[in-house]
Amino acid sequence: MKGGCVIGLKVKGSRVVPLSEVYKILEGRKKRGPLGYEQQTCYDYCERFVELGVDETASLIKELKELGIDEEHACALADILPEHVSQVMVICGKETAEDKAKQVIGIIDKYRYKGKKEQTGKAKEKKKEEGKKESGKEETGAKAKKKETREEKGRQEAKKEKKKTKREK
To answer: Residue 20 has what pLDDT?
Structure first.
């Protein structure tokens, strides 16, 4: 593919985008109609792992860039929200000084807890809904077979008990 052409389309530009922004874009797209397979997979991933809103992510990236982190690494840090200095050093490269990595963790912690406080209510509601959906689903695979065998054993034991009680009478 020369010149960045994809099925007759040309790429005008590219930029690094945090997951929270991807999630917002896909939510808007979902309102207009059903998502394609790849879009739905990406939407599900974002729904599961995005912890900060678009505004919080943008301000976190801004603070990280002010610290001297390039935009690509700042987006990765905002998406992953690492908890340890070693994780920051893996994301940004081993050239990153440990002092700088500690500063990054301090900034991220400020946003991590802010985002979790805002989302706790929403996250709890989603988990409850998922639990309700999963409990309504039929069991398949090994669990279903085990359940069937247990039920069959229970029926067989009930038949044996009936026969015993008939003989005793």
So the answer is: 93
Closest CA to 26 of 6, 50, 9, 8: 50
Q: Would you say how long the chain is, in residues?
A: 169
Q: What is the pLDDT of residues 113-123, one digit of tens each?
A: 765 545 544 55
Is the entire prediction scored with pTM above 0.70?
A: no
Distance between CA 80 and CA 19 in Å, rounded? 9
- Counting as low any pLDDT under 70, the low residues of the chain are 1-6, 114-147, 166-169
Q: Which residue is it, tokens 């896909």?
A: 26
* Packing angle, helices 19-32 and 37-49, rounded to 10: 130
Sequence-separated contacts (24+) of 100-109 with Cβ below 8 Å: 100/67, 100/68, 103/67, 104/64, 104/67, 104/69, 104/77, 107/60, 107/63, 107/64, 107/67, 108/60, 108/77, 108/81, 108/82
Q: What are phi and psi of 135, to 5 degrees?
A: -70, -25
- Please name which of 70, 59, 66, 52 lies closest in space to residue 15, comparing C-alpha atoms: 70
Q: From CA 130, how far away is CA 166, in angstroms rounded? A: 48
